Amino acid sequence: MPRIPAVAPADASPLVKVAYKYAAHKFDEVPEPFTVLAHHRKLFVASARHELAVQKASTVLPANVREIAVYRVAWTIGCSWCVDFGTMLQRLDGLDVERLQHIADYADSPAYSEDERAAIAYADAMTATPTTVTDEQVADLERRFGRAGVVELSYQIGIENMRARMYSALGITEQGFGTDSCRVPWADDAAVTTEGPGS
């Protein structure tokens, strides 16, 4: 369970209830970060708008490159929720999720392309504290993806660092998106679940 309890649908504001229903329709379950962030209505709204805007704007990079870089950040930081959710997103994008089992050995694994390896190495360099990005690395990425692609990759890696660190700090763990069994934050309360976002 998260360190800050989820806001159950019965306790949520009308706006949050609508957001829960939308998320449940899109993902078959309400992502637990939503339910924790719902304690702060203004940040909840800001975060939702930002995530939607970033998703719409991120169209320069191939999905496989963008998603594997984001996944590597989650895996490196150790955010089990982000790894779980990221696996689902890759599956929904039609990407090969079996290759995720080889993420530790990406540099030598035939499961990854040269472009993917370059994006993963950049994710590692950006996620290191302090960062270890080099001029040569950025120049190589620019040759591969163009300037807009480097900006998009940097933005996506930066956002995932924020998500993964925040969710880990709040104790938000895997929810079952990567498999067929989802953990519902308010599942212990049958009455609330009946009236929950999926109803």
UniProtKB/TrEMBL annotation:
Organism: Rhodococcus wratislaviensis NBRC 100605
Gene Ontology molecular functions: peroxiredoxin activity
Positions of the Carboxymuconolactone decarboxylase-like domain: 58-124
Name of this protein: Carboxymuconolactone decarboxylase-like domain-containing protein
Highest taxon above the source species: Bacteria
Gene3D superfamilies per the UniProt record, alphabetical: AhpD-like
Name of a matching Pfam family: CMD
